[in-house]
Amino acid sequence: MKVNLKPRAMMYPSPAVVASAYDEDGNADCCTLAFATMCSHHPPAIMIAINSTLKRKTLKSILYSKEFCVGFPDISQVSEADYMGIASGYDTDKVKDVGYTTKKAELVNAPVINEFKASVECRTMNVVNIGSHTQITGEIVNIQADEEILNDKNKIDFDLLNPIAWDDVSHSYYSMGEKIADGFKTGLKFK
Ligand SMILES: Cc1cc2nc3c(=O)[nH]c(=O)nc-3n(C[C@H](O)[C@H](O)[C@H](O)COP(=O)(O)O)c2cc1C
Question: Could you give all domains of the chain from N- to C-terminal order, each with its CATH number?
Answer without folding.
Answer: 14-190 (2.30.110.10)
